Amino acid sequence: MCDTLVALASETPRGKLLFGKNSDRERNEAQVLEMHPRRTGGGDLKLTYIAIPDVAQTHTVLISRPCWMWGAEMGANEHGVVIGNEALHARVPAQRRRALTGMDLVRLGLERGATAADALAVIIGLLERHGQGGDCGHLGRFYYHNGFIIADRHEAYVLETVGRDWVVETVAGRRSLSNAYSIGAGWSDISPGLAARGTGRFDVAASLIDEARDAVSFGRGRCARGQALMDGAGDQLTPAAMMAILRDHGEAADWSPANTVGRTICMHAAQGARRSQSVASMVSEVGADRAVHWVTATSAPCTSLFKPVLFEAGVPPVGPAPSDTCDDQSLWWRHERLHRALLADHAGSMALIAAERDELEAAFRARIDGADDLKRAVADCWREAVQAEARWAQALQPARPGGSAYARSWARLNAVAGLAR
């Protein structure tokens, strides 16, 4: 389960496009942050499950990908194109036979599209040629169709797919997308196969959505919540406001990670069907002068710091690429120890760290805005973030083991990951 948000430059006080995404996946499914330089040569390109012909030259890309996949949940390229992916559930079953995954399509769109329109055309062309399918779950099987927000500093699109068919909506202002079909009768383009399912300008989402699956994923509810929070920000829709939306836990007064009715934008895993948590988050601000990508590179944005990445400066050292087994040398797993300790008393933990978290992020944003030496400024932000998390970990009281179903679900997955209590 995931949430993706976009606001055109005309909608933001800084006059720059804003993009945000939480990637929600299984709790031990670490996410890798990496930058890949341009690739030349062509030949065969091995993706998550299949190989396809490569292109003669690709663009430099920044991606956040599940540790076992080739493709990415979200990312950006050197030209300021940003893309995020969402699982969609239709009445038509998703293909189980291995093909392109939605994550493959995100990365391919970034590698091959110099504009949002180019990336949109790349994804549609590859989808029609190769299809989508295969198991996209980690420990649990998970098959789905895919939706995307694709944007650059000039424009943005929502693309929703079912099999090899697709529908596109051109974004007019601000737009959210979650795990539910959302393009109604206002589509701007549609595949012939999907157009044949209705008459005239029909409501595509209503014709496709699996109501039973949506009741479980709460996709339409989260989409509406994200849209309401963006709209409610008015003329103050800044990177900080977008980060706050990605940290949203809804309005329930008694909310806690163990006591959640439905799924929230900042997703926390629990027992039963709620296997997913927000394992990585990203907010991008894309302007004519500069694109700054604020990433957590860690899970649970409420417990994480958004840190800057710019193509001019590269990605600071984050340790070895994490796998689904605990490795304290990797940034993702070091934070995961902190995150899982914070869950023992989430409200108390947030009271301890939230003010410093927000102050640090404000200082990071001011530093990047005023930096002459971007590489040094980025490195300083990441170093201070690591130091802050180390302080938080030291200040925490050891978590008490619990006997609830919620606690047992965490104990089981901690053991699977080799993560000691």
Task: Give structural attributes.
single chain, 421 residues, alpha+beta, 8-stranded antiparallel β-sheet, 6-stranded antiparallel β-sheet
Commentary on this structure:
- The protein has 421 residues and is α+β, with helices and mostly antiparallel strands.
- Helix 1 crosses helix 2 (116-130) and helix 9 packs antiparallel against helix 10.
- The chain contains eleven helices and 16 strands.
- The model has no long low-confidence stretch (mean pLDDT 95).
- 32% of the residues lie in helices and 21% in strands.
Short description:
This protein is an alpha+beta fold and about 425 residues long.
Number of helices: 11
Strand content: 15-25%
Which class do the helix and strand fractions yield?
alpha+beta
Query: What's the Cα radius of gyration?
Result: 20 Å
Oligomer: single chain
Biggest sheet, open or closed, and with what strands and sense? 8 strands, antiparallel
Task: Bin the helical content.
Answer: 25-40%
Give the N-to-C terminal Cα separation: 27 Å
Order of neighbouring strands in the sheet with most strands: 3-6-7-8-9-10-11-13
Low-confidence stretches: none
